[in-house]
Amino acid sequence: MSEVNELVEFDKITAGIADIQEKGNFIPDMSTKEGYEASKRFVLDITTPTRTKLDKAHKVAKAYWVSGGKNVDSKKNEILNLLVDIQKPHQDAYKEHDQIAKDKKAKFEDDLQVKIDFFNNFKFESVGSSDFISALIQSCGEADTAEGFYHRAIDAEAAKKSALEYLNDLLMSTVTREAEEQRQANLAEENRLRQIEIDAQQECMRLQQEEINRKQAEIDRVENEAKAMAESEANEKKRLIDESERAEREKNAAIEREEYAKKQAEIAASEATEREKQRQYSERVKQDADRARLEADKAHTGSVRAEIKEHIMKSCGLDNALATKVVKSLLKTNRVTINY
């Protein structure tokens, strides 16, 4: 299928556009059914089928071009691969050469930078005394930047100049700092010697004060001992007086306790005598009551037994002597109980 054949369908559609335009050259009245149907049928029956043909022709023609593009890409890649294979040995060779040259140049530049850093590093090695910094200034000043730096000679000279400026400024500040440190050290030494003198004076005053305190302590001790002795004598006198008064109080208390005990003993003896009299009286009353109750019991028992005897004599026709024996015999057995 050729390119011309694929585009013929587009030409056919294009040729019918004028006729379609002519058919649609009207403005319908949409307020009427006929006007509404005329516009709707124009779209459905005229333009829509034509658009469908256009989409179909486009798909067919595009397929041709897409397929052709893929074929062209494939052919191009095939030839390109052949060229790449052919050129690769030569390309690898000159790339290796270029890399060697590039590495050599990089090393050359690195070496130059190391030489320049010789000056830059003075800024990191400058911590120390003024003598040490002066030695660094001399070492930096003696370094030659006229040879061996090639196109970096200007950079080397600038680094050297910057390092010397930094070191000179640092030397000035270090000399000032060391002078101040020396001044502070001298001042500290003067203060130390002055403090030693003050300490010695204070020690002397302390010893004098200790002697004064010792003498005062001795005076206080003597006074305190005398005062303590006087207080002790006064306390002893007071103790003796208190002891005498206490002994007198104890003596009087003992006499009072003795008299109280004697009186209590007399009261207890009187109460005991009274209780004994009361006990004896109660005992006599009880004995009299017991004797009276016993006599009454005997009289009652005799009356009951006489009544039994009389009953036996009457009911059994026994005489007095035989009835008495029967009653006595009944009293001896446990089988007969008499209620009195």
Can you offer a commentary on this structure?
- The protein has 340 residues and is an all-alpha fold.
- Among the domains are: 3-96; 115-218; 300-332, no CATH class.
- Helices cover 88% and strands 0% of the residues.
- The chain contains six helices and no strands.
- It has helices spanning 3-15, 17-23, 33-120, 130-142, 153-316, 320-332.
- It is flat, with a radius of gyration of 79 Å.
Task: List the main descriptive attributes of the protein structure presented here.
340 residues; mainly alpha; 6 helices
Distance between the termini: 169 Å
Fraction of helical residues: over 70%
Q: What is the SS-derived class?
A: mainly alpha
Instruction: Characterize the largest beta sheet: strand count, sense, and whether it forms a barrel.
Output: none
The total count of helices amounts to 6
Low-confidence stretches: none
Q: Report the principal-axis shape.
A: flat
Q: What percentage of the residues does DSSP assign to strands (E)?
A: under 5%
Gyration radius (Cα, Å) is 79 Å
| Overall pLDDT metric | 82
In N-to-C order, the SSE pattern is HHHHHH
| Record field, number of beta strands | 0
In short:
With 340 residues, the chain is mainly α. 88% of the residues lie in helices and 0% in strands.
Detail the topology: elements first, then pairings.
Elements: H1 3-15, H2 17-23, H3 33-120, H4 130-142, H5 153-316, H6 320-332
Helix pairs in contact: 1-3, 3-5, 4-5, 5-6
